[in-house]
Write a structure and sequence with these properties.
64% helix, elongated, 522 residues, mainly alpha
Length: 522
C-alpha cells in the first residue's frame, strides 16, 4: 500500500509540474517534456480505470524527462537548474504559512486549468527524421530534409524557477481542499528543486519572475540554505534585495530584521500572489505586538488570495485576532467563511481547536447566544463534524467552568438523530455534569448511572468519576441531617450552614477536577 501511495504521489508531482510548464504559451516545446506529458496522461487514464499501481508506474517512466536532462546545457552554454533535481522528503511544516494549522496556495486558475492533452498534441511534431527522405529517391529528398529541419525540437531545458513555484502553489491549493497527498508531494518538490535553484545561472535570475520565485520558494517551505546560496552567488538589483533578504530573515527566524524589511515593501504594486504571501508573513510577525495592524494585513491576504491556502491561513489567524480586539461579529464572519470554504483542509483540525476555545471563552451569561452562533457557523459542514465540534465545546466548557454552555452543547448533540453510542454517552455526561450543583441530587445520580462508563474516553471517565465523587460528598450531609448533633442533641443542624458546607465542598471538588482536566486538555 505504501508503494502505491508513493507512485501516486510521484504522478501528482509530475502532473503538477508539467501542467505548470504547459500553461505558458511562450515557452519552447520540449520533446522530452511532451513524452512525459503523454506518460502522465496514461497515468491519469490508468488511475481513472482503478489501477493505481499502473498509474504510478506510468508516471515513474515519465520522471527522467520531467525532471530535466542531466548533463545537458542550454544553447547559450548555461546549465539548467533541473540538472540537480533529486528525490527525497523534507520535514517542512505548514507550507506557505509558517505553522499558523495549516489547517493550509493560489486560486483555481493557473496550473490546474492547463490542458494535459496539450503535450500529447505536440508529441506528434518532429516525428519525420532527416534520414527518412532517402527512401524516396525521386527528387523529393531535399524537400523532406527541409521539412525535417523545421520540425527539429527546440533546445532542451528543464522548468524555470517560476514554473516550479506554480506547481508548488497548485499543490498548496490542493492541500487547502483536503488533499494530504498534495502536501507530501509539495515537500518532495521542495527537496528536488532546492539544488536546482542553487545551480541556476545568473542569466536565469535576471528574469523578474524567477527573482520573485526565489523568495516564494523559501516562504513556501523551501530550505533557507537554498536562498542563502542564491544570494551569495548572484547579483540582484537593489530594488529586489529587500524582498529576498526579508524572506531569508523570516524563514531563519530573524524576526526583527524580517519585519523591518518586509513591512517596508509596497505590496500594492506586487502581483497578488506575492503580495498575499508577504502580507501573511508580516501579519504573523505583528500578531502579538500590533494585532490591529496584523488583522489589516490579513484582510489584504483574503482579498488578494481568495480561494487559496494563503486565505485559509489568514482566516484561521484572523478569527483569533478579531476576537482579541473585541470585533466579535468579524470573528463570527471569518469562522463562517472558513467552514464554508476550508472545512476539508488538512489544517482544519487546527482551526477547529481555535474555534472551540474562542467560543467557550465568550461571556458565561451569553451561553445561549454562543450556541446559536456556533450553529450558524457550522451549518455547512457534515453532521458528524458538527457533533464533534459540539462535544469539544461541551468538554472545554466544563473545564473552563462554563456549566451552562456545556449543558447546552451536550443537549444540542442529543437532538441529533442516529447518534453513535459513544457520542451519546459523552453528551449525557456533559449535560449531567453541568448541573451537579443545580438539579436534585437523586436525578443527577440517575442520569450518571445511566451512562456506560466503559464507552467513554479515558479523559471523560475521569470526569465521570469526579462527578460521582461530588455527588457522594453532596449527599453525605443530607443523609446525616436527620440525625442530631451528638455534642448538642437538642440543636438541629443549621440549614444555611449545611447548604454552605455542601456548596463549598462541591466547588472545591469541581475545581480539582477542572485543574486535572486542564492539564489533560493541553
Amino acid at each position: 500500500m505504501r508503494a502505491r501511495t508513493d507512485h501516486l504521489a510521484g504522478a501528482m508531482a509530475l502532473a503538477a509540474l508539467l501542467l505548470a510548464g504547459s500553461a505558458r504559451a511562450e515557452d519552447a516545446p520540449d520533446a522530452a517534456a511532451t513524452t512525459a506529458a503523454e506518460q502522465v496522461r496514461q497515468a491519469g487514464e490508468a488511475a481513472r480505470r482503478g489501477d493505481p499501481l499502473l498509474a504510478g508506474e506510468a508516471a515513474g517512466e515519465a520522471a527522467p524527462a520531467a525532471a530535466g536532462h542531466g548533463g545537458e546545457d542550454h544553447a547559450d552554454g548555461d546549465a539548467h537548474p533541473a540538472e540537480a533535481a533529486a528525490g527525497g522528503e523534507t520535514g517542512h511544516g505548514e507550507a506557505g504559512t509558517t505553522q499558523a494549522d495549516a489547517e493550509a496556495g493560489h486560486g483555481e486558475s493557473g496550473p490546474a486549468e492547463a490542458d494535459p492533452a496539450h503535450g500529447e498534441a505536440e508529441a506528434g511534431h518532429g516525428e519525420t527524421a532527416p534520414g527518412e527522405a532517402d527512401a524516396h529517391g525521386d527528387g523529393t529528398d531535399a524537400a523532406h530534409g527541409e521539412a525535417a529541419e523545421h520540425h527539429e525540437p527546440a533546445p532542451k531545458r528543464g522548468p524555470q524557477p517560476y514554473e516550479v513555484i506554480r506547481s508548488l502553489q497548485f499543490l498548496q491549493d490542493q492541500a487547502a481542499r483536503g488533499n494530504a497527498s498534495a502536501n507530501r508531494v509539495q515537500a518532495r518538490l521542495l527537496q528536488w528543486y532546492g539544488p536546482a535553484f542553487e545551480r541556476a545561472s545568473q542569466e536565469t535570475w535576471k528574469d523578474p519572475r524567477n527573482q520573485r520565485a526565489a523568495a516564494l520558494f523559501v516562504l513556501s517551505g523551501g530550505p533557507p540554505a537554498v536562498l542563502r546560496m542564491i544570494l551569495a552567488k548572484n547579483d540582484f538589483p537593489p530594488d529586489v534585495r529587500p524582498l529576498l533578504d526579508g524572506a531569508l530573515a523570516y524563514v531563519e527566524n530573524r524576526q526583527k530584521e524580517a519585519e523591518t524589511l518586509l513591512s517596508a515593501l509596497d505590496t500594492a504594486t506586487m502581483e497578488p500572489g506575492l503580495a498575499a504571501q508577504v502580507n501573511l508573513a508580516v501579519a504573523q510577525m505583528q500578531e502579538k505586538a500590533a494585532p490591529d495592524k496584523a488583522l489589516e494585513r490579513l484582510r489584504r491576504v483574503m482579498l488578494d488570495a481568495s480561494g487559496t491556502l494563503l486565505e485559509e491561513a489568514a482566516l484561521r489567524l484572523g478569527m483569533v485576532l478579531a476576537e482579541q480586539l473585541g470585533e466579535h461579529a468579524r470573528a463570527d464572519d471569518y469562522a463562517r467563511l472558513y467552514f464554508a470554504r476550508y472545512a476539508s483542509s488538512i489544517y482544519a483540525g487546527n482551526f477547529r481547536a481555535r474555534f472551540t476555545a474562542l467560543y467557550v471563552a465568550r461571556p458565561f451569561d451569553q451561553a445561549a447566544e454562543t450556541v446559536e452562533l456556533v450553529e450558524d457557523a457550522v451549518a455547512r459542514i457534515s453532521l458528524v463534524d458538527q457533533v464533534n465540534i459540539y462535544l469539544s465545546i461541551g468538554r472545554r466548557a466544563l473545564v473552563a467552568g462554563n456549566m451552562k454552555l456545556a449543558g447546552l452543547a451536550g443537549a444540542r448533540v442529543l437532538d441529533v438523530r442516529n447518534l453513535s453510542q459513544a457520542a451519546r454517552q459523552r453528551a449525557l455526561l456533559y449535560v449531567a455534569a453541568s448541573t451537579l450543583t443545580e438539579r436534585d441530587t437523586s436525578e443527577t445520580l440517575a442520569s450518571l448511572e445511566a451512562i456506560d462508563r466503559e464507552i467513554l474516553h479515558p479523559a471523560d471517565r475521569k470526569l465521570f468519576d469526579a462527578a460521582m465523587g461530588v455527588l457522594g460528598e453532596i449527599r453525605k450531609p443530607l443523609m446525616a441531617a436527620a440525625e442530631p448533633d451528638p455534642a448538642n442533641p437538642t440543636e438541629p443542624t443549621s440549614a444555611a450552614a449545611l447548604d454552605s458546607s455542601v456548596v463549598d465542598r462541591a466547588t472545591k471538588l469541581l475545581d480539582a477536577v477542572r485543574s486535572d482536566l486542564e492539564g489533560m486538555d493541553k
